[in-house]
Design a protein that fits this description.
- With about 120 residues, the chain is of the alpha+beta class.
- The chain folds into 2 domains: about 50 residues; about 55 residues, OB fold (Dihydrolipoamide Acetyltransferase, E2P) (Beta Barrel).
Length: about 120
């Protein structure tokens, strides 16, 4: 809703300036206001197209470190958090791994290529 006000509302609401003010003064106010509206609209579009920086989507592809392997259970460190993980390959403590997916509270990892 607010985006409509910003993108379309400000230039439209500023149109009465042309009835109230002399043309050079109205243009001096209207043009920067429209430019601000266009600039903020382009910034919003760029922000919407950027990749996620937080949440589960941002975790895919990150390199993590295996902290412990106890039986079939793998524990990896993501930033300063410990997560349960599963892997198709055998991983050893201290080894790097790459996050390939998330199933609930369990991370799916694999060995990095070349390891």
């Amino acid at each position: 809703m607010w985006c409509h006000l910003l993108f379309f509302g400000l230039p439209v609401l500023a149109l009465p300036l042309f009835w109230l003010l002399p043309l050079p003064l109205a243009l001096g106010v209207y043009v920067p206001l429209t430019a601000l509206s266009v600039w903020s609209g382009l910034a919003a579009i760029r922000a919407l197209q950027s990749p996620p920086r937080t949440g589960l989507e941002a975790m895919r592809g990150r390199v993590v470190r295996v902290e412990a392997v106890e039986g079939g259970r793998i524990v990896v460190r993501v930033d300063n958090e410990l997560w349960s993980a599963v892997a198709e390959e055998t991983l050893l403590p201290g080894q790097p791994a790459i996050i390939v997916g998330i199933d609930g509270l369990t991370i799916r990892v694999r060995r990095p290529d070349g390891s």
